[in-house]
Write a structure and sequence with these properties.
42% of the residues lie in helices and 12% in strands. The protein is an alpha+beta fold. A two-stranded antiparallel sheet has the order 1-2. It is rod-shaped.
Length: 66
């Protein structure tokens, strides 16, 4: 009986580790890309988008339209 409980506990632990790892991978791939450049047609001047420590984007442009 102890052997069955021991194996069940190990199986539950393995499931929790696998679920936690899968959840971490899923969450990390759903985050926005924070680096790189994108070309956008129709802008009058370059636009910079910076994220602060909390991930909030701040947009810096020369004109209101951009």
């Amino acid at each position: 009986m102890k052997r069955v409980l021991w194996r069940g506990g190990i199986a539950c632990l393995a499931f929790l580790v696998a679920a936690g790892g899968g959840g971490f991978l899923w969450l990390s791939t759903s985050l926005p890309d924070r680096s790189g450049q994108v070309r956008v047609e129709g802008l009058a001047a370059p636009v910079d988008i910076m994220r602060d420590d909390r991930g909030i984007p701040h947009i810096f442009a020369k004109t209101e339209e951009d």
